Each structure stands twice: as structure tokens, then as C-alpha cells.
Amino acid sequence: MEDALFPHIEMTALDWLADAAIALAAFAFGCLQLYLAVNLLIPDEAMRRFLGIEALVPTANAIAAVAVTTLPLVLRRRLPWPCLVFVLAAWAFGQTASQDISLSIVGPLVALFTVAYCRTRPEAIAATCLAALFVLIVPTAMRPSYLVQLTLIQNLALLAAAALAGQALQLNRAYAAEAEQRALAAERNRETEAQRRVEEERVRIAREVHDITAHSLSAVSIQAAVAERLVKTDPAAAEAAIHEVRATAKDALGEMRAMVGVLRSGNDGPETAPTAGSDRLGDLLAYLEGAGIQATLDDSRYQRGQVPVFIDVALFGIAREACTNIVRHARATRASITLACQQAAGQQQAVLVVQDNGSAPKQLKIETSGHGLKGMEERVRLLHGTLQTGIGKDGGFVVKATVPLESAASSAPSAEPAPQEV
Fold first, then answer.
1. Where does this protein have coiled-coil stretches (predicted)?
2. What span, in angstroms and rounded, lies between the C-alpha atoms of 245 and 323?
3. What pairs with residue 281 in β-bridges?
4. What are phi and psi of 76, to 5 degrees?
5. Neighbouring C-alpha atoms within 13 Å toward the C-beta of 86
6. Helical (H) or strand (E) element with 341
7. Is 375 contained in some domain?
């Protein structure tokens, strides 16, 4: 624990110079008070005689006494307690030794202020009591007069003011330091929040890349297999399949380019626009039919103009993931996509249903632990909707996403961050 009498304080050359200047200023003030205090306080000579006071010229001993009570202030911050005790003792001794001259109390005041400013509140109280004790003892050794009593009251008031000023400045310094710490903590919180948002964006991009690659590569693989099978027996059909492969790959490259544009630009320009919406559901039908699956689309009850864009994009992403799962896992021959807006429980909702007649149990087992269903669930959850998956009436697999339009639209900013896991 730091010693109360000899605390370790690092002092720079500028600190020492400042304390030396304060000590010299206190010495000059004390000398000036020796010459002027009595004459200015009681200018009338008859009154001074009545009070028993003589206007004496300060001697060299008096000036030396002022020096002893002020020059040690050079050490006031390095040794606050020893400095206070020394100047108090020197002031009391000099005052009692020169009863006809009133020594300035400026040295003890500065020393007391330093203790109150640099040390704890209990130490400040103890230092004030000690200084007051010295001030009270001195008049008992002096020739009694009205001026002595007046000086006593004045000195006690000055000691209290010095101690309070030191404590007030210490509180102000502590408040400033606390405010700085709060500012630093807020800055660290902002950095943490920025890192969190970067991580969320990274996960969102990973999910989008998964959606793009899973859908597009599945289509490319299927069409390439068709072309390979028909290249000798039906060159025209093989050429058509290769053309489809090229178109699908081109679309996928365009979407990936838009994704990279998001990373490069960091703005809200055209490159950050959603890759696709429900207006491209026809591409999903072509994708399913290209895989040999008879597909139907019913969006006659869907009011695209009244659905927020981010909801429309999310619904298309869910439909695309569901269709990718059908092609990859369901072994289905038929599939249907239904997209509609409906009123339920006094609330407008967008409902997407994707179902097939494939081998639902195997599909459910595979996808429950994969990326697809988790990605769908996160999309719907962020839109305050619900996702239902399970076995349909014809034994196939059903994906049903229901998104409330009002609540999702009111929380559009919060719907943008990505899920924590994909």
C-alpha cells in the first residue's frame, strides 16, 4: 500500500518548475503582506495605538521566517504530508518568535490545499484539523489584542476554504477521469458492436453464397448429366441441355458478382440490390422441370406490390432452397409452389407453400442436420414469421412459411442482420 507520508509520485521537470514557481509566488506574497498588512488593515495611527499595534518595518528574520514557510512548497506534491507539517511548525514558531509582526499563512494554506487535492478525504479532514490546531495554539503565545483575535478567525476561515477547494478540485478530476473511462468503454462497445455486425454480415453472405451455389450447381449437374446421356443419341436435346447449363452458370456468376460487389463497395448502390425476388419463381419451375419433375406455380393471390421487397426476396430464397432440396433429396415426380397473401387473425400475411410427392422421411432426416432448413428457419424468424415442415398428405415433404406483413415491415432494419449460425 502506498505510504501516506511518502507517496510515490512521478514528477517531470515541468512539474518541478511549476511547484518552484508556486513556492516563489507564495514567498513574494508573504513578503508583501509583511509590509502592507497592518497599515492597510488599520491605516489610522491613533487606532493602532489604541489597539496596541505598532507599524514596524519587517526585519531580515521576519523575511527568513516567510521563506521557511513558503519555499518548502517545492516538495508539496512529492511529499505532501511532511511539507504540510514542516510549514505549519515553521509558521507557528516564526509567529510566536516575532509577536509584533503577523506572518502570512499562505504557505500552510497551499500545503493544506495540496494534501486535500492529492490525498483521500479522511486525510484531508485530518490535515485540516492539524492546521486548525496550530492556528489555535499560536494566539496563546502572543500578546493578546483585537487584531490577533481577528487574524485567528480569518486564518481558520482560510484553512477551511483551502481544504474545501482541494477536495472540490479532486472530485472534479475524478469526475473527468470517470467520464473519460466511460467514453473509452463506449468506444470499446462500439468496436464490439461493429465486429458483431461484421460477423453477422459474414454469416449472411455465407448463407446467400450457399443458396446460390446449391441451387445453381445442382441445376448445372442435372443438365450436364442429361447432355452426357443424350450427346450421342439425341444431339439436339444434348445441345439444349448444354445451353441450359450455360445460362444457369451465367446467372450464378452474375449473382456471385453482385455478392462480391457488396463486399467491395460497402454502400447502398446497385451492387447491394437483392439478387432475386418472387418475380423469378418461373426460373424455379424451369429448374424443377429440367430435373424431370412436373412442377406447378400458383401466385394468383399474391399481391407483389403490397409486399415489402425484403420479404419478397426472403420468400424467394426459401422457395429456391426448398426446390433445391427436392431435386437433390426428394426423388419426387411432382412438385408445386403456392404463394399468396391472406388475412388471418386480423393480420395480413404472406404464405409460401412448397410441396412434393417424394420420399419425405429420408429428405427430413438429411436436411434437419444440414444448412437448408436452418437457413429457412432463420430467414422466417427474422421476419417474425413461422416455418412449418413435415410430411404432406400424399407422403411427400411440405415447407410452409408464413410471414406477417405489418410486423415484419415495422421491423425492417432488424430483419436485415443474418442468423448467428447457418
1. 176-204
2. 17
3. none
4. -65, -35
5. 17
6. strand 334-344
7. yes
Residue 50: predicted pLDDT:
60
Q: What is the CATH number of the domain that holds 321?
A: 3.30.565.10
> 276 CB contacts (<8 Å, ≥6 apart)?
255, 283, 313, 316, 317, 320
Residue 263 within any structural domain of the chain: no
Closest CA to 249 of 221, 270, 277, 276: 221
Q: CA 213 to CA 180: how far, in whole Å?
A: 49
CB 383 within 8 A of CB 409: no
pLDDT value, residue 256: 66
Q: Which helix or strand (DSSP H or E) is residue 337 part of?
A: strand 334-344
Q: Round the CA-based radius of gyration of the chain to a whole number and report it.
A: 44
Residue 398's SS3 state is strand
- Summarize pLDDT for 192-243 with one digit per residue, the tens: 877 777 777 667 666 766 666 666 677 777 777 877 887 778 888 878 878 7
Q: What is the pLDDT of residues 300-319, one digit of tens each?
A: 999 888 888 778 888 988 89
**45-to-42, 52, 55, 101, 120 alpha-carbon distances in Å:** 8, 10, 8, 16, 47
Q: Specify the pTM.
A: 0.45
Is residue 353 in a domain? yes
Give domain status of residue 91, yes or no.
yes
Q: Containing domain of residue 410, as a range?
A: 294-422
Residue in the block written with cell 468496436: 191
Domain boundary among 125, 144, 163: 144
How many domains, in total, are found in the chain?
2
Pick from 95, 116, 144: which residue ends a domain?
Answer: 144
